[in-house]
Amino acid sequence: MREMELKVSQVKSKAKEVSELTGLKSQIGKKAEFSGSVYKIRKMSGFAFLILELPDGLLQCVWSEETSKFSIEDIKENMCVTIKGFVKEEPRSKIGFEVTAEEITILSAPAEEMPVVINGKSMNASLETILDYRPITLRNEKERAVFKIQEGLVRGMREFFYQNHFTEIRTPKIVSEGAEGGSNIFHLDYFGKQAYLAQSPQFYKQMMVGVYTKVFEIGAVYRAEKHDTNRHLNEYTGVDFEMGYIHDFTEIMETETAMLKAAFSFLKEHYEKELELLAVEVPVIETIPAIRFVDAKELVSSTYNRVSREPDDFEPEEERLLGELIKKKYGSDFVFVTHYPEKKRPFYAMEDPENRAYTLSFDLFFRGIEVTTGGQRIHGYKEQIEKMKRRNMDPELFTSYLMMHKYGMPPHGGLGIGLERLTMKLLNKDNIRYASLFPRDINRLVP
Length: 447
Known about the structure:
Layout: H1 2-19, E1 31-43, E2 47-54, E3 57-64, E4 80-89, E5 97-108, H2 127-132, H3 134-137, H4 141-163, E6 167-168, E7 174-175, E8 187-190, E9 193-197, H5 202-212, E10 214-222, E11 235-244, H6 250-270, H7 272-277, E12 290-292, H8 293-304, H9 316-330, E13 334-338, E14 351-352, E15 355-359, E16 361-366, E17 370-376, H10 381-390, H11 399-406, E18 412-418, H12 419-426
Parallel strand pairs: 3-5, 6-10, 12-13
Antiparallel strand pairs: 1-2, 1-4, 2-3, 4-5, 7-9, 8-9, 10-11, 11-18, 13-16, 14-15, 16-17, 17-18
């Protein structure tokens, strides 16, 4: 037992050691040893700057003929190295210090020249090239900052959920029926049975409301949509939550508003460096305006003298135009559109008792694009069976889903957010693939 405790202690000590490598600022005036990748070399007369890429940013190391015990000619960009040197204060540096490189150990060297230049101020390459060489181009300082900011969004939202007593769940991604209906579903041969990739965790998060009342999940969802646009992916990350014992679907909207405020506040507190590097304008949210679907369609139509080709849904151009109008009138980057037509919402959407042609549902638009769909769900067994039959659905195919309705469910509702779309619009990118680590669309399966 004593020997085991010693081994555990040693592992913990090593982990602490690794985590302190990027805490070099606390070692100003001392010698330090650290590892990283050679991001860029700037050679001068008699000295050179070695820019090292560390887990949390770039560090300038100074090589000189007098103090360095190695030849600068032996060092190449993209080598992985360990450097020993003296940490000194440097007010002209963005991070406030630099390192005088005394010794170097080469850990690995690239076998070929880089196919793309990754150490410029930004990636001067097409999106296709950036994605083709994604494992390499992500080493660019700005490219990798995108996903640190995305990490910050997730951390901020997760912290909000925990603080508000949500339980995190993990639901199956191989399912026996589609949650959203339609043909946009990937089919699988599951040991001779028909199965699908989950379009959302919808059925399971509803089930879990009957267990924990408030639940959330952050995970992959799949849509077999044959779209080749700047806003669609076939695999993306959904941020989903569901709440029980609600009085009104607007409680879901209020919760999302509070969650976004918390996530953006978390970003500004913990990811200032990345936000500054990418010149991100983080929205300030007080309240988010809301407008009914029919009124929003009429507002866009009358303002721009535009005839809609899609009377029961929003066209992408209408989303953009509505975003402009809301920004101009309310100064808000966000707008809730509520009461969508019943025919365009899934079978579990609760209908508006005042007009059953519409639902107690909503979308959230952010800077002219839909990033969230949500609303109140049908919780009564009889009501859910009746609606399924009206849509010519066979309830026998949804026995496991309907089990929760049969044995009692509280009034509930929830939503799903597309993380990549949210990131894309936060960073003012024009293509969702910039905000997807390794995007999957109808054309791309690698890397």
